[in-house]
Amino acid sequence: MKITIFGSASGIPEKGKAHSCVGVEVGEKMFLLEIGEGASSSIAGDDLDIEKIEKVFISHTHADHFIGLPRFLQYLKWRGRKKDIEIYLPEKHIDAVEKFLPFLYIFRERFEFEYKFLPLPKDELILTENLKIKLFPTSHLKKYRKYSDIYGVETTSYGYLVEEVLNDGIGVKRFLFSSDIDSVGELKNFIEGVDLLLIECAHIGIEDIIEFVSEYNVPKVILTHISPDRDVNFMLEYARAKFDLNIEVAFDGMKIEI
Ligand SMILES: [Zn+2]
User: Fold this and answer.
1) From ligand 1's centre to the CA of 110, what distance in Å?
2) Pairwise CA distance, residues 228 & 11, whole Å
3) Where are the domains of the chain?
4) For the chain, which end, N or C, has fewer CB atoms within 10 Å of the first or last residue's CB respectively?
5) Digit-coded pLDDT (tens) for 119-166
6) Ion ligand 1: residues, CB < 5 A
7) Rounded to whole angstroms, how far apart are CA atoms 20 and 6?
8) How many angstroms separate the CA atoms of 73 and 230, rounded?
9) In this structure, which topology does domain 2-257 adopt according to CATH?
10) Where are the annotated coiled coils located (predicted)?
11) Residue 83 C-alpha to ligand 1 middle, in angstroms?
């Protein structure tokens, strides 16, 4: 499984960085997790056959995870895409997104491919014969619960666990991406046996992450979504020296193979 970080910025805009977007690639297929602002520019800068992209998952519709969608659809059109694409969104927001796009002059009639909006899967979803994804709920949006009745918005966000069964039919590779969480404890039920953890740092302390991953012996950890005012270098040195952690900071264009 190949992972490409297309967007590593936190919710705060930063020069030269796109917001959340991660590509997961197995064979001839790629799946995008999040499509934040600037994701298309980052994808355009990669040597990627865009026909490979099969599905997009959007854990929640904060702008830094979602607002790259209109530009992404237009980019696919501009690149002459003809293959349909599925976009998974919080169910309650699908209708609003459908109604919003025409006001950006994005009309289905002008596309040579179908873009289909689907609710985020509640159970494991089979992506290819040896790849599956599970979305697990997180409390990242809990502060908005008081608005849910007024505006009808979703108040659960999700993290991602992607599993690939290797060609021998026995070995499994696991990639865990926290997306946005409220505490590291929300990853507890999914961390066992993970080969790569991509974890956000905008809403949780690096100290908490270091303590958590050292307890579970995660072989590789990448920190992403780091606010620009945070200097993590000191903590990284500490994590490497004290716990011998394989820990790095994400950047746009970073590729990791597990
Ligand atoms: Zn975010």
Assistant:
1) 31
2) 10
3) 2-257
4) C
5) 999 999 999 999 999 999 999 999 999 999 999 999 999 999 999 999
6) 11, 64, 180
7) 7
8) 33
9) Metallo-beta-lactamase; Chain A (3.60.15)
10) none
11) 29
